[in-house]
Known about the structure:
CATH superfamily of the largest domain: Cation efflux protein, cytoplasmic domain
Strand content: 15-25%
Oligomer: single chain
Distance between the termini: 55 Å
Largest sheet: 3 strands, mixed
CATH class of the largest domain: Alpha Beta
CATH architecture of the largest domain: 2-Layer Sandwich
Strand order of the largest sheet: 3-4-5
Number of strands: 5
Radius of gyration: 28 Å
Amino acid sequence: MSAVLRTVNRVVLALIGLVLLVLGGSVLAVGLGASPPSWWIHDSRHDVLVSAADRARWRDHGWFWPVAIAVLAVLVLLLLWWLSAQLRRRRLAEVLVETGDGEGALVRGRAVENVLAAEAETLDGVERAQAVLTGRRGTPQARVDLVLAPHATPSDALHHLTTGPLTHARDSAGLRTLPTTVRLRALKHGAKRVS
């Protein structure tokens, strides 16, 4: 997600939250006995959101209230899904590289991921590699998935990954540490027929 979209997302979330907070707070305040201004949507603590006439109008339609409740339930589930998507860790868009002048330089996160994966694929016994950076741009974290060839030894592949590509990525970016989660999988291959 780009920085502009993240900013727009946060501003929209803040505005929606502010509107909901003001409306909910006003309903609570009026319900507790506060006197609202004359132009407000509630007149007194005995005022209701849905009047008896509005409720009675739909009483003859047996489908209305179940549909209204179902729509609101689906809306709540969608909002909870969206909230969980916002809180999920996303790929790192850029990495802050220490240049020694106190300023630093920004490198695209995808570029670092591609180089890390390409270098990991050159290791003996590694058929495929994929790297993903998460965290903050000054303190990135890596997740590396390796698909190992049938002849590969997992401990050797992990050792070569740690001392090779991960060390190069950490040193190139001027990072003190690069916490990494590595997932190793074996390459699936069919059994050979013996004649």
